[in-house]
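Problem: given the chain below (257 residues), write out its structure.
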Amino acid sequence: MAQSERMIDIAGVHKTFVADHGTVTALEPVSITIRQGEFISIVGPSGCGKSTLLRLISGLDQATGGSITLDVSGRKRPVGFVFQEPVLLPWKTILDNVRFPLDTAGVARAQGDRTALDLIKMVGLAGFEKALPRQLSGGMRQRAAIARALSDDPPILLMDEPFSAVDLMTRDNLNDELLRIWQSTGKTILLVTHSVDEAAYLADRVMVMTARPGKLKCVHTVELARPRGEETKLDPTYHALVAQLRRDLRTPGGEAH
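Solution.
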């Protein structure tokens, strides 16, 4: 997968909030360049600004300072977002939920159905097109949320702890499904997770954030062969990286390197 072109350029981006007791710094200045087609995991303590960074990239929130440049060739919706909860519309079928962004964009119904059905098949939900969200397991609902985020083909996919609410076996399966989707679509993915095992298994690079006020402590390049699978988890390089990430999270913050 080619990763030569810049997709996201983050330069000195920071965020402060005004609260009743004064100004709160959610994110210290962060700078990093993310290449097209790259898979980035972001780890750090709760409240360190991981989700804030995703919201700034997506445009859901505005930075206090710095700049974020997306090389997305003027796309109307350059970013897909998968949240911790699937946030599916409970009265709509899975097909209708996945097609919903296309409906709001004015895409013809027949074309929207074709795209949605292809995505439903890709995420492993074929046969559940007419089901309602409440009829699916948590993992299946999150698959539907991923399909919906991909429906209008955004080049960037942001994922905020998408698998934290499912059991370990389901999480492992969803990790493998996500890698398959990433490899088949070539999306640039940023995934926030509290699991260092998940971060190391999925990513090309892992960003480590410090405790609040969050800043980028270090970035690790993941030297593991692709495609990845169960044998990856037996690799000493994988275990060494997981151990290093745990050490990074236990020690006080430092400058990014």
